[in-house]
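hiii, so i know i said id send this last week but things got crazy w the move. better late than never?? heres the sequnce for the chain we talked about at the cafe, plus the structure i predicted for it. fair warning i was half asleep when i ran it
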Amino acid sequence: MRRVMWPGFAGLASATLGVSTGQLVATAIDQRAGPLYAVGGMVIDATPAPLKEFAVRTAGTYDKPLLLAGIAAAVAIVAAVLGIVADRRRWAGLTGFAALGGLGAAAALTRPGASALGVTPALISTLVTAGVLLVMLRPARPTAEPGGRAGLLDRRAFVGGVAVAAAVVTTAGVAASSRILGGAAARTRDRVRLPRPARPAAELAPGFVTPNADFYRVDTALSVPRVDADRWTLRVKGLVDRPFELSFDDLLREPMVEEHITLNCVSNEVGGPYAGTAKWLGVPLAALLRRAGVHAGADQIVARSVDGMTIGTPTATVLDSGTMPGTQQALLCVGMNGEPLPLEHGFPARMLTPGVYGYAGSCKWITEIELATFDAFDAYWVRRGYAARAPVKTASRIDRPGPFARLAAGPVVVAGVAWAQGRGIAAVEVQVDDGEWAPATLLPEPNLDTWTQWSYRWQARSGPHSLRVRAVDRTGAVQTNERASPFPNGATGWHTVAVTAT
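okay and structure toks below
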């Protein structure tokens, strides 16, 4: 057993130190090139859309930590096996570790915007792993002293040294990442003084706007991009007459507007949490496009993020935004609920297009806008089967009471939100136990591109009950009851909750 346990531990320990060193080196080059992040990004890109939807639905915001933990566990198992193999055949074990390093290098090179330096973390990780493995397997051989006690002591000392080294390297990597990457972004964000909008948004009742800390986050970034605003630029290019570039200071000098807009994720199930409303501050995107001079036929805006994500938005949707009474303009946002964009929500700037799902109009950490055509280019999610054009569907949700709640019989307030961006909500109706649909009371909505809060007073009788909600938009269209999954263009169906009154 010892003959197997020590080589297995040697493989695991050497890989731990090697991967930790690679992650540390990546902080000085590109955090995405770290072995775990690079392989994780490759796994995300290769995962079929339905499986991604399942991960978001099941794990929510924990999907990325769970993915990284799963990759780390898989590497640990493979490393332990390779350690055992290397104890018997050095060349075979080392070849296996070299193959793991090659996978990390390939993953780093395939990340959008990657450079040749991206292989450096994986290369160094492989060399450290191989070196530590060779040294650790040396004491595993029989020693001259009876019982092998000297060898055992040597092993214990070496194990302690490897553990300390791994802890030091990991801590240094976290500290370096925080200082080098997070520090510059946080410092520039702290210095930002948002300009006063030329057109401020009206103050709304408490509870209408989603606080920044509670606003949902769904994206493919395994680590939040930390962008130094002093080095950030936005390029507008492609099928335009006058390409141009803006620094963050240039952007802050542009005329700003403030708008309340509800943002929706296409991954949101019926009744799900991936919708939120914020007060956004930004530059009207249509004004920037007109400054560039959009060519006829350029029907798609391709927005690119610093992490390589591409978002495709219909050009007409942006140019026409805000032209109909009650609708809001597409923005290049710098502020959210009265403060600079949080790092996880796109600092220093993000694109926001009302009326379309986030994957088709909301690019975080934006750094480039290219005018193109839908025929010439498929954005990230479109290449994975999602619809190229993704208008938000009419939806409604019961927020209280919650599912399976136990209530006191008598008067109960049922409440929630409904939205039909660009059209607005005309009515919300509630059904109890397959009875008649009854009208809910609507609170005023600030514009057609936000959700509407609603409430319904219900006289609950003892026993189990089913509560159901549906909305009617201002065109008279009733929200469909046809159940559809989020893929490929948004979920549909009536939200239903089961409760018990006692």
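btw The chain has three domains: 2-188, 212-384, 395-501. thought thatd interest u
miss u guys!!
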